[in-house]
Design brief:
This protein is an alpha/beta fold and 575 residues long. It contains 18 helices and 14 strands. An eleven-stranded mixed sheet has the order 3-4-6-8-7-9-10-11-12-13-14, with helices on both faces. Helix 1 packs across helix 2 (26-37) and helix 12 packs across helix 13. It is globular and about 65 Å long.
């Protein structure tokens, strides 16, 4: 504690630890003290981290800690193995590679990353010694199970570290064929990305106490497809004992985004075909698996793109699969059945969405060439994009497209609504209503938020390169939880966006630390009796009527009841 106070004293005296006056002998002492504070010895081994100056407050970062053996060579398409350890101190002062990937929404970008990618980052506030234990937030990134990573330039911890109440862990997991290829038998068992996440959670349970974290106060947080994997972890009998709370941001395992189909074998054969294996339709799965392990990783990354019927259609082409009865199986039945029947350990849940979920569909609609191709093949592409049986395509178009069988300026906003309703809003409502049938909401409450804060920070603008604003779209809430320097500069603290950062971070942190959300406005918690038409949700937005520079939180329980009934009938007919 003495060393910490002395270090803090010198921090206040200097601009920062690394820029003290060279004429002072104190600089050597300060550097030594800072380094000593950043040396942690945990069960996994000793690591040496790095001091970061931060946005408002300094924090400590431990980058690129291995939690699994590199899944390369013979370990490609195999369940992850715990890292064997290292001698001395692991250099945790710089981030490691992302898992090898190519972002399908940014097709002009090169392939990046490596197969040797199973690392995690630990961030803790500078005042971690002042509190007995910090609650822990474990972040699972989204990206269609094909892209993104734990890199600090994509998910930087500055806003959470400014808050100073939680330890943040971000992690990589295998993507694309490397993480989600299944053969339908023991040749390639599958769900490796989910098993990577589970092993990382085991690492957190065993080691986070040594970093000042509380292993009994861990919240698993994910966005989009990452939220779907968080939901799956919640329903896994091993994983569900490794965390205490869940935040699902714009995604779940009961969304058409990741509906599981009984086609693992056919997808596996297509993977072999698209990877250039000439005997893809005559060899056994074990023979093909052996050949796939020998291929250059770049071949497998490029082959994934051939699984799309059209641009980003379906949004997630490789999905978790139902495994057989073997050791280490992650998922052995449809998660929609598990969830509907309540066969898992209940936990407090925070569920969120942005107000205009369908604007990613605009990447097609605003491109004349793409829209033309989509309209010519709408009977084929629409059921694939939204995951419903093709026999209902006319019914769906009649409901949303003003009686037309194509998309144009007169009905394009309803196409966006169609996409958002089917992929995000309807599943969220369905998930909550099913949970309330059996949950003890006194002990395991469910909270809902909606993000409707309009600003220049727009993921849609980034992926299209066009200065078009279509509302608060998919993952736009992430700009206010993480710094995302690869997309936009950090938000200024004294701006309206900065005010929203404070509100949104406080909302998430309250849940991570206490299992309840901060009541910015009075609202009625979710119970079976309040689920008609729907539970109250807090809505984050600008104060449009009086001052756009002010941020407000409103409350609503309104939903599109007719829409919910429509999609329920579609799904029930398919069953």
């Amino acid at each position: 504690m003495f060393k910490f106070l002395l270090t803090l004293f010198f921090f206040l005296k200097c601009v920062n630890y690394l820029t003290c006056a060279e004429s002072s002998n104190e600089s050597v002492t300060i550097e030594k003290l800072v380094n000593s504070e950043l040396e942690v010895c945990a069960k996994a081994g000793c690591v040496r981290g790095k001091f970061e100056s931060g946005r408002i407050k300094p924090y400590e970062a431990f980058y690129g800690i291995p939690y699994a053996e590199p899944p390369i060579g013979k370990l490609r398409f195999e369940n992850p193995l715990p890292y064997k350890g290292w001698q001395g101190y692991w250099d945790a002062t710089y981030p490691r590679n992302a898992c090898i990937q190519k972002n399908v929404l940014l097709s002009t970008k090169p392939i990046l990353g490596s197969e040797d990618c199973l690392y995690l980052n630990v961030y803790r506030p500078i005042n971690w010694q002042q509190k007995k234990k910090f609650s822990v937030m474990v972040w699972i990134h989204g990206g269609e199970l094909l892209s993104f990573s734990s890199s600090p330039d994509q998910f930087g911890p500055e806003y959470l570290m400014d808050n100073g109440e939680v330890i943040l862990v971000t992690l990589n997991y295998r993507l694309g064929f490397f993480g989600f290829l299944c053969s339908g038998d023991a040749a390639v068992k599958g769900n490796f990305g989910l098993k990577d996440q589970q092993l990382a959670l085991k690492w957190v349970a065993a080691n986070i106490e040594y970093f000042g974290g509380d292993s009994q106060s861990v919240t698993l947080v994910g966005n989009s497809a990452g939220a779907a994997t968080v939901h799956l972890q919640m329903m896994n009998p091993v994983s569900q004992n490794l965390f205490q709370r869940v935040v699902l941001m714009s995604g779940s395992a009961v969304s058409p985004l990741v509906y599981i189909h009984d086609n693992a074998r056919s997808k596996f054969c297509l993977a072999a075909k698209y990877s250039g294996l000439k005997d893809w339709n005559t060899s056994t799965t074990f023979q093909l698996a052996y050949q796939l392990k020998q291929l250059d990783a770049l071949v497998l990354v490029e082959a994934v793109n051939k699984l799309f019927a059209f641009f980003a259609t379906p949004p997630v082409p490789l999905r978790p699969c139902i495994e057989g009865d073997w050791e280490g199986a992650f998922l052995q039945e449809d998660p929609r059945t598990i969830w509907a029947e309540g066969r898992f350990v209940q936990k407090p849940i925070l569920i969120g969405r942005t107000s205009n979920k369908g604007v990613l569909a605009a990447a097609i609609a605003i491109n004349e060439t793409l829209l033309g191709i989509f309209n010519e093949n709408i009977d084929e592409f629409l059921p694939i994009q939204l995951d419903f049986h093709p026999r209902y395509v006319t019914k769906v178009m009649d409901y949303y497209l003003n009686g037309k069988d194509y998309i144009d300026e007169s009905n394009v906003k309803f196409y966006y609504k169609m996409y958002g309703d089917r992929i995000y809003t309807y599943p969220l409502i369905n998930l909550v209503k099913q949970y309330l049938k059996y949950a003890n909401v006194e002990e395991n409450p469910v909270y809902i938020y909606e993000f409707d804060f309009e600003s220049s920070y727009s993921f849609f603008k980034f992926i299209t390169g066009k200065n078009i604003y279509l509302g608060v779209g998919h993952i736009d809430d992430l700009f206010y939880l993480f710094t995302m320097s690869s997309l936009f500069p950090p938000i200024k603290p004294d701006s309206p966006e900065g005010k929203m950062v404070d509100i949104f971070v406080r909302t998430i942190v309250n849940f991570v630390t206490r299992g309840e959300v901060k009541s910015w406005r009075k609202f009625t918690p979710c119970t079976p009796s309040t689920s008609t038409p729907f539970c109250d949700r807090q809505i984050f937005r600008r104060y449009e009527k009086l001052d756009l520079n002010e941020v407000i939180v409103s409350v609503s329980n309104e939903i599109d009841v007719k829409m919910v009934k429509f999609w329920t009938e579609i799904d029930n007919r398919e069953n």
